[in-house]
Design a protein that fits this description.
Blueprint: H1 2-25, H2 29-55, H3 65-87, H4 92-108, H5 119-123, H6 125-156, H7 162-166, H8 170-203, H9 211-233, H10 237-261
């Protein structure tokens, strides 16, 4: 039953992507409302499947690659639904739903039987949860950065088409970018701290300076510099948009390196 609901979720998310793309290219509010409704239905299926999988598992929640990526996908869609409902920003689904869909699909393409995660992931499962929440914040900042650059280029070239009017104002996108980083950074910080604490308890060392931990610390410093640059130096929004795109690409590569090197899959769709 859980597998069936995950498959329903994939179908609904993919349908939401198609509807969102249609809304992006055509002046049709029906498409945007339909995309929101379909994504909402997919979110309900996803919530049921994720909850059933976690509650029915003998393992600690979110210690497998599948569960971590599923939680990441679920959180992204939740952000989209909240923002779209409260702000009327339906176009956000055109950018967030593909990320959520790909995250869920990525868990399905791996073999069913894989070794569990490294011991320090198992002893402090909250480390994975916090890291995923931080990644969600950076993903939304990434999306806001892409939308900002698109809108900025359209306005600069004076291309006033359907996309120009559907993309939010530059100020709104800049604010969304900054707030998303401000939200994601504390979660990443807590994720690193809990991971280091768990490593100390299990291995006797807070940091072993392996490539994954080293790059996680580098990522933390990168986003710290971005935040300080925005809040103190006054970096322009365009520069921040580029930096958050680069930063999120780094986060994805680091996370995949950690999980794939350490195993991290016990189930698949």
């Amino acid at each position: 039953m859980t597998v069936l609901f995950f498959r329903f979720t994939l179908v609904l998310y993919f349908t939401g992507i198609l509807l969102s793309l249609g809304y992006l290219l055509r002046r049709s509010e029906i498409l945007s409302k339909s995309a929101l409704a379909v994504a909402g239905l997919g979110f309900l299926c996803h919530s049921f499947a994720l909850a059933a999988q976690i509650l029915g598992s003998d393992h600690v929640p979110l210690v497998s690659f599948h569960k971590a990526m599923s939680f990441f996908s679920w959180s992204l869609v939740l952000v989209f639904l909240v923002v779209a409902t409260r702000q009327g920003l339906h176009i956000l689904g055109t950018f967030i739903l593909p990320l959520a869909f790909l995250a869920l699909v990525s868990a399905a393409v791996f073999p069913v039987e894989r070794e569990s995660l490294h011991p320090f992931f198992q002893t402090v499962w909250v480390h994975v949860t916090l890291s995923m929440l931080g990644t969600v914040g950076f993903a939304v900042a990434f999306v806001a950065g892409i939308m900002y650059l698109m809108q900025e280029r359209l306005l600069k070239s004076k291309q006033f088409n359907v996309l120009t009017f559907k993309l939010p104002p530059l100020d709104f996108l800049d604010t969304l970018n900054q707030r998303s980083i401000l939200l994601g950074f504390p979660f990443l910080t807590l994720g690193i701290l809990t991971g280091a604490l768990s490593a100390q308890l299990t291995a006797g060392s807070y940091l072993s300076w392996n490539p994954e931990q080293t790059w996680a610390v580098v990522t933390w410093f990168f986003y710290l510099i971005v935040l300080l640059g925005r809040l103190t130096v006054g970096w322009r929004a365009k520069k921040a948009a580029y930096l958050t795109i680069v930063g999120f690409a780094g986060v994805v590569l680091i996370f995949l390196g950690v999980v794939l090197k350490g195993g991290g899959l016990s189930t698949s769709l």
